[in-house]
Amino acid sequence: MQSARVFPTSRPTVRRDRARRLHVVPDPVPLPEPIHPAERRLRDAGGPDDRATYTCQCGYLFEAPVNTTVTCPNCSSEQAW
Ligand SMILES: [Zn+2]
To answer: 10 Å Cβ neighbour count for 6?
Structure first.
């Protein structure tokens, strides 16, 4: 007569209590550099001040937006830039 070998039907499961993973919180995004007050004013005013002072050959001094074609409001001659 054969002796019946008894196999365990289930092995005891080793439940390892894993250390709870801590949530890795990324560093907060650094705040942008504060805007310089002068730049803030320019931006609020609608952008950088692209105006320049021109001196015409006629002697007229005027301020106009920076452009490739600036004409003197006094003599209407085109200004070199
Ligand atoms: Zn002029």
So the answer is: 6
